[in-house]
Amino acid sequence: MWLSSIAEHLELLNTQGNLHLEVKTIVFDSREATAGSLFVAIPGFETDGHRYIDQAIQRGAVAIVVEQDLLNVPAGITVMKVTDSRDALARLSAAFYGDPTEGMNLIGVTGTNGKTSITYFIHSILKAAGRPAGLIGSMGALIDDKQVESRHTTPESVHLQCLFQAMRAEGINHCVMEVSSHALSLKRTAYSRFKTGIFTNLTPDHLELHQSMENYFAAKSQLFDITEETNIINADDHYGQLLISKLQGRPAKLISYGIYNDSDVYATDIQYFEHETYFTVHTPAGSIPIRVRMPGMIYVYNALAAIACAVNCGVSLNAIQAGLHNVMGVRGRMETVYQDKDNKVIVDFAHTEDGLEKTLKTIRLFTQARIILVFGVYGAEGEPGQRKRQAMGKVAGTYADLSFVTSDNPKNNDSMHIIQEIVEGIRQTVGEYRSHVDRKEAIHCALSECRTGDIVLIAGKGHETAQLIGDTALPFNEKDIVNEFMASRFAVGTLR
User: Fold this and answer.
1) CB contact set of 337 (below 8 Å; sequence gap of 6+)
2) How far apart (Å, rounded) are the C-alpha atoms in residues 130 and 470?
3) Vertex 48, ends 46 and 50: CA angle to 5°?
4) pLDDT surpasses 90 at 216
5) Dihedral Cα 28, 29, 32, 34, nearest 10 deg
6) Are 335 and 116 in contact (CB under 8 A)?
7) Contacts of 47 (CB under 8 A, 6+ apart)
8) pTM of the model as a whole
């Protein structure tokens, strides 16, 4: 594509060089630059893309987008200066890939907890209705049923637009995606045409970035400023109610869902079992019994959000019922990774105070003996991180019988300091605890404690298969760790 044809979408402060160049790729990472690349220099949290312009040019970049004035630009390199290079990356990417979300039924799901399950529920419902769909989220992307890797819950704008184009090339006109607060704040989703926005809930998380719940709410709310047709909101959540008030009078249709407050889509006759949940859903299109093969109230809410979306898309109640029934579970979400006649081990992504409390309360309904919990907290330093760690420690001490406090993804932070702050929360309760910096060791110790009827919950990482220590991602598959250890216990006859 000619640079001039995509550059016309930008508000350029100034231009140096020739715009009549062929651009073969758009990149923001200098290591990905190749011959004919357009390199967009983005200021980041840890480094600044402007520092890597020379490397991008050495790798073949022919044009550069910058926010800063440059000196000594090599001959033949075109430089375009803009006010906001993140916004420019999103706009250029959408144009380069032919605005692939134009005319697509793009559904965005945001909130603290529940995003992944909702996207998988909607994807399965659309499939049951005979509508091939894409999915983008924390576990990668699906183009119909084909798995595609992605780097973030919501990929960077250039990767996102490339995924959308790949979906359109496969004839897919429906896509449901998780939309993180980071993605909204960092403009990864800018110039994507969302038909529908779904809000799940808001509880303390990512405050190292947003600093306050007000800022966090404002970041999430950005999705509903750009939705074109429908907004679907959890009426039982405090911030959901604030969002409903904010959205009144907007052109987009407003649909509420819930259990306790008056809602357009709601559940009654809820029955919880160890591996599944039953309820009756009531919608503007009628009522129907629902079976979700995941336990707990959180999955009633997640199913209601998916049902509200599907009804709004004109999917029949029978297809909705079948689509939800077809979801056998979601990896790392209340996933039973080991079970025998005496013990059960569950891996769950619960990584917030609210999420951990809901998971522990759900497990308590079906536990014959003790809940043994293994968890850590993401290694963000500062006061918001400290509040989160102490709050999660208090939840652990209140609802688990024995907690093994350990690392999560500490990155470059002091794991022992993080653990001490979690322990401060546990000490506000009567809960028992032990601490191990090494997460694998903590899991082994927890499994060694298993007695008949105990359930071990390993919380925080869920589907993740790596642990971030320093600048290195080390392989770390909790399902494999559990099964290898339990197999060895049986081999040596140590299971009590």
Assistant:
1) 345, 346, 347, 478, 479, 482, 483
2) 46
3) 170
4) no
5) 60
6) no
7) none
8) 0.90
